Amino acid sequence: MTGCAKGIVEVRNEALGSICASRKVVAVLGSDEHAYYRLWMDRTVPAGDPRTDDPDGNGILGDSGASFSPFEGLGGGVWFITTGGLGAPYHAEEAALWNTHWKEKHADPDVLRRYYAWSPQGHVCVFDVRQERVVLHTYNAFGYCIDSVENLAKKIQRPG
Q1: What is the pLDDT of residues 69-120, one digit of tens each?
Q2: Would you say 34 and 90 are in contact if contact means Cβ atoms under 8 Å apart?
Q3: SS3 assignment for the chain
Q4: Cα(123)–Cα(69) distance, rounded to whole angstroms?
Q5: For the whole model, what pTM was predicted?
Q6: Exposure on the CB side of residue 13, measured as CA atoms within 13 A
């Protein structure tokens, strides 16, 4: 890099190397977004690859208007869950290459929810881990379940 600060995509992609090195990782939890996101990332999702998405070589992906390519290192895939539901202010959903990817592939909301969920509500994530099963239930402040996945550890099929 040439003295530029790394962006969130670059930092995330550096971490992906470690994440993908273990078959035991089923989800990555993050925060600092005042919302809830659950996103399935596999090698079909545009995530940005520094080898192809930094044509000017300045270490910042996409700044020259180039689109992001899929991150090949993801292999079978992993869940990315952002749980920042107790901070304020909340904000509207912002379009990103990775969430737009699933929305363009799946117009049916029931199918889309297999791969992507978002909510601006205050929330808490509850994980129930039992041997090879990891259940996620996300509840809002009123106790209503706004999202759930019955087994995060089960690798989901890529959409056709």
Answers
A1: 666 666 678 888 988 877 667 778 887 777 888 888 887 888 888 889 999 9
A2: yes
A3: CCCCCCCHHHHHHHHHHHHHCCCCCCEEEECCCCCEEEEEECCCCECCCCCCCCCCCCCCCCCCCCCCCECHHHCCCEEEEEECCCCCCCCCCCCCHHHHHHHHHCCCHHHHCCCEEEECCCEEEEEEEECCEEEEEEEECCCCEEEEECCCCCCCCCCC
A4: 32
A5: 0.77
A6: 23
Query: Position 113: which residue type?
Result: R
User: And the tokens for 27?
Assistant: 């989800």
pLDDT at 10 over 80: no
- Measured CA to CA, the distance from residue 155 to residue 75 in angstroms comes to 11
Q: What is the pLDDT of residue 1?
A: 44
Contact call for residues 58 and 3 (beta carbons, < 8 A): no
> Domain residues of the chain, as ranges?
8-122
Distance CA(49)–CA(136), nearest Å, equals 29
